[in-house]
Please model this.
Amino acid sequence: MSDQNTNPPTLKTIAKLTGLSQSTVSLSLRDGSNLKQSTRDKVAQAAKQIGYVPNRAGVRLRTGRTNVLALVLSTDVKNLDFTRMLIKGIGAQIQGGQYHLNVIPEYEHSDPVEAVQYILNNRSADGVILTHTSARDRRVQLLMDANMPFVSHGRTEFYSQHAYLDFDAEKFIELAVNRLITKGRQHLLLAAVDNDTTNFANTVNGFNRSVAKAGIIGDVARNSNLLADTEDTRAFGRQLGASMDGVDGIICNNELTALAMMGGLQEAGQKMGVNYELVCKQTTEILPLLYPQLDTVAEDLYSTGKELADLLIKNIDGASADSLQILQKPIPNWRD
Model:
């Protein structure tokens, strides 16, 4: 039996297969940004062909690095398909490179700092991706104090600069308000899920500014219990539908919220496009599939995942934090 069948493939195996030097193969698998793309592709293809897996323990001993990115992910996610699309985007960005992804769940009712503290205590990753970021997020403070590379999905209010990618909630609201006004709506309701994030605060502030600028009436469903789950939201829709109190336009920042509210409004005899118009933030294809006439403003979660991974790797490589900040543009889908 040959050595290739009895021993795990090594850098030497890839070098022999590709005709490249071991140092070139090693550089290509680590990063290889200075190498030709054709060389990197050749090495990646050979590594995949023979099932090469880096010895992480050896890498860590030699370099102090794990070649692991950690995604700290809330399990209390009401956005449809959020987790799958985010991970799919991250995976696409790191595929064929030196990094692997570990997902660290933040369990409901647990201290969100615990997941980050675990990563720091065990030095189990080279960098961290945070989701559902709040204004004075303790996880962000912990990572900054530890000088650990990270990127947050969402902005904070810390004075110190850090890497982030955030959906432009204010622009989303501005687009939605203007769209409803063009359809003749003058009394708008914001039904936004309050998840204690900076994004929620920006959504509410943007709504208040936009309706004030337009000189129309705007209400916010501020009682978080009204939108706590789909049953409560559907009941809220029924209650609203029984007495609209002049409300003729609704903005939702969550697809499940929109679906549940529309169900309740329909049960109360209210018809979308007649009694009211609705604009929702879109993260999947479910809304246009069920309601082809519904206006949405999309966030591309696949691109979000790719960008977050790219920003984190650049942060690990030493890029300055103020060069690693992206405000993602909303994509309006007006369906006349």
Q: What stands out?
A: Residues 198-214 form the longest helix (17 residues). The chain has a mean pLDDT of 88. The CA atoms of residues 164 and 325 lie 5 Å apart. The chain has 14 helices and twelve strands.
